Amino acid sequence: MTITDPSAFGSQPSGEDDPSVRLPLVEGASEDFSTVTDAVAGIAEIPVERTNRAWIICFAISVSLLGMLGMLILHLITTGVGVWGNNNPAYWGWPIVNFVFWVGIGHAGTLISAILFLTRQNWRTGVNRAAEAMTIFAVVCAGMFPGIHIGRVWVAYWLFPLPNQMAMWPNFRSPLLWDVFAVSTYASVSLLFWYMGMVPDLATFRDRAVNNTRRIAYGIFSLGWTGSSRHWHVYERAYLLLAALATPLVLSVHSVVSFDFAVSQLPGWHTTIFPPYFVAGAIFSGFAMVLTLMIPARQFFGLKHIITMRHIDVMCRILMATGLMVGYAYSIEFFIAWYGGVQYESFAFVNRAFGNYWWAYWIMVSCNVLIPQVFWSKKLRANLWVVMVVSITTNIGMWFERFVIAVTSLTRDFVPSSWGYFSPTWVDITMFIGSFGLFFTLFLLFLRFLPVVAIAEVKTVMPQAHAHGEDHGESHSAGGSAAAPASRHDA
Amino acid sequence: MSDQKKNDEIHGVVAYFDDVDSVMSAARKVRDAGYKKWDTYTPFPVHGIDEAMGTKPTILPWIVLGMGLTGMACGLLLQWYTNAYDYVFLISGKPNWSLPANIPVTFEVVILFSAYTAFFAMLGLNKLPHLSNPLHKLPKFRRVTADRFAICVEAKDPNFDADRVRAILGANTSEMEDCPVDTSRAALPLWFHAVMALVTCATFIPLSLAVKGRFATSEKPRYHVWPDMDFQRKRKTQTGWEGFEDGRSMRLPVEGTIPRGELRDDFELYFGVAQGSSVPPRATYEAGSMGGEKFEWLQSFPTAVVVDEALLERGRERYGIYCGVCHGAQGNGLGAVALRAKAIDAEQWGWVSPKALQSDSAKAYTNGELFHIASHGISSMKGYGSQITPKDRWAIVAFVRAIQASQALPKAPADLPAGVDFEPVPTIKDVRLSEASVDAPASGTEPAGEAR
Questions:
Q1: ipTM of this model?
Q2: CA-CA-CA-CA torsion for A448, A449, A452, A456, nearest 10 degrees?
Q3: Closest residue in A to B22 (Cα–Cα)
């Protein structure tokens, strides 16, 4: 029923193109439910003293950066937002750039989980958990920036429609308020989606637990899940509903973020293409971040047979496709600026490419449009070093895209007397670096202690999961042995 | 009887299976045997098991739909109440309530409600969290979340018969056991109860403080959680400071100087008396005499003020802003404040009705006295000297003289042009107060504001 050839992908990328043959989603002839469970659960069950050295080094760096971020936030709150480079005319500087950057990255997770689930793209099962985790951590980083940008963080609750002694309500016709609703809904729904997907896998961890601490911790969070089929029935329906709800949500969030810009009058911002353009860019940057994270993770934690070269190949193609969409948006912006005949618009776009910030614009174009074109080549899609470099340059390019949009427009508006030049301060730069510390600290903790791969979902796409399948009949050794899968599956 | 006893001791019979096919065929048999209290346990959702078990479709989608619609109603209501009803925002002259602008937030609230409902209703329908399940006590059952399948027929089922169940399940199973009823009750340590009791009590502290703040009065100033810019390193006006010799934080003008705009050398213009005569005190006017002293009040207007149409127009405008609210637009003493004061019978608290400016006593004042009254007040009227410039006060005096000459005449003047209707302007006694404006306080109300 399926050809199981582990060498078909990865080492020899050519010769697997028979469309009538579906390649297995989990590679390896001997893989069964228990080996998949062992491979994923084994990562979280490694004893503390045998933790992967690379993990420890990465975690130490991330936690240091996180500590630095904490000190910088303290400095910002006690001193005021003047420690940033934001000033007339660019009151939206790096904080909004970083916010949009992180929110954009946070889109791939829900896209993989929800949209690919609804479209029955079964390959998503290998990467969706990690992508969802990435989404939540990216949204945490994103939410931080506007949170501290409001200046008096202790009155952040004014963002929400709460009754207060001033008898005032927020303005529901402001895109900034829509953003509060969109991002907070997105964050909490993504969290639910992620957690709900994890409940069965946490139950697996609980049942494999070797000590009481683990049994109690995983036991509480797995809510007493037994794997009951009646529970699975309701659970699957709830999962489908969440996917159906998250799909329009993920499209709405970056559309609303783009409204922050598009609803204003500023040349360069006031364009109707922004919502689809932002969503495509968000998916683009999100997939780049998934690749950046998953390539080292599968290498270090022995998940090459679950997160296969086929996953990476598919994601590279998506990266290229969304990169082309973004490139199309860049060109159509220029066309509309010329075709619209508004001198301010024309100036804004010519200024982007050839004005003070020409360097940022061309970094953006080369990273987002030109470099991903290497993925036309199958050979380069199979070369992990190339994939890694392109995914990182894509994220650099997408940061610059937001920088170009926010800063070039603000510093060159209608009246030359209100022109300016934005320069970041050391706090801007170190805070952005610190936000990576926050992101990677959370992600590394996730890698170490939670099910990195949706174990139950991966099992559903294995051939043995279907009735009337081949009877492999081999007896498994009783579960609980924390094998070291990394060595076993290395080619 | 012995069977019955046995049924009380076991939770159910558990059979284990190694692959999907065998668990599916066993599930069909149990379903066909007519059991209700039983379940299949699998490490992942098995395709087709619902049909094999005879599971009915869940009502979850309908619950989610209902809550999604509730979310839509709540989102719209929230925006309508906050922005179109309770605190109206006027944005660029657009309608107060315009649906397109409210779609994004409504959409997000629909998703929020639906998603939370999907998750929590899933937990509710599955009766999760359910941490003390007897099945968790079986060591063999732990592999069910990894790579094994199980069926448990519970003893609670009315048709339960352990031997028959074993016979049904036995055909495909690789292993079978009885699940005992969980009689162990893990007692929590005593310190845990103590800590939880303390924590529970502590959670009431913020609430009780809020309740106290709501209902108790306090002499102490408000507690500043976030002082913001309330306290700054500076001295405020009219406070003391030991840093200066005289102990004041404010500085006096240098001796022999007059601040810009403070020179009052034109007595006629600034005080309403003849040049060089004694200056009346800045006190509320007392009819007849000002502390027994006689002043040389100006009969006409100061030389610095030219009475012409522009001045009268200015006076009419200023009068409308400052005076008409009490004295009425026509000077008959029937302004909105006067009517309200009459409606609530404010005289019982010492309120003096605004004078009808056409009255003989008002006409008897000299221009200088009117100017002084406008500047410093009379009886319950406060002075307007700090709000209205001297020239504008003179303009008001001129306008008052004009309405005295033209309004509330007892009978039609002889030189009234033909075709003009004459109607005497009503006085306060003639005004029949409408029902709505009468809001008389209850008879027992104490005179709260009498001193003010």
A1: 0.86
A2: 150
A3: A467
